[in-house]
Each structure stands twice: as C-alpha cells, then as structure tokens.
Amino acid sequence: QVQLVESGGGLVQAGGSLRLSCAASGRTFSGYEMGWFRQAPGKEREFVASINWSGSHTTYADSVKGRFTISRDNTKNTLLLQMNSLKPEDTAVYYCATYTTTTGRYDYWGQGTQVTVSS
Q1: pLDDT cut 90: percent of the chain above it
Q2: Residues in contact with 97: Cβ distance below 8 Å, sequence separation at least 6, in sequence order
Q3: Contact of 80 with 36, CB cutoff 8 Å
Q4: Average pLDDT of 58-66?
C-alpha cells in the first residue's frame, strides 16, 4: 500500500509561484516513476508532469512547459512541483500519483491540494 500526501497549494496572483510537495510512504519511493495531475472544476483530470525513478527524465504537458519543474528527493521520499508564472487557467486541484509498471498506469493517488490563481 502507498500513501501520498500533497501540500503547498494556496491562493496566488497571476504571475506568481507556488511549490507543491508530495510526501510518500508505504513503499520504496525511489523505484517508481511519479507524476503530477490536475483537475479543474467541470473538467477531466489531466496530466501535468512526470519523472522517472532517478530524476534523470522528465515529461511535461505543453501547457506547463517552461513554467513548471518536477523534481524528486529520493532520500526524503518527496516529489516536488515548482510552478512559476502561474496563470488563472492553472487553477485546479493538483494530485500526485505513483506509476506501476506491472499495470501500466498510475495506481496510487494522493488526496489533492487546491491551487487557485487570481487574475
């Protein structure tokens, strides 16, 4: 079983920055690809960014490229998302998740943290 707890969300003005954290427990964090997703009101959950087990490879949605940076600290079992130049359209609940190679999908999810960007 994996437990994921996000933190760091809040209210920020457009152009501002936030740093989200995801604390993982219950399994060997360093062995797994991790991802960030978000869900805005009335919309489906969408992919934001992912990072491989070592942190050497990252992938981003086009909408956040150049503004968001995903990273991880395997010594602290923590996943991070640095969000800069925030826009009102970034407003959403942000979730971290663990990818499971045996199933080919993200199987474990946190409860989410709210990010609101005012114009």
Answers
A1: 88
A2: 4, 34, 35, 36, 37, 106, 107, 108, 109, 110
A3: no
A4: 98
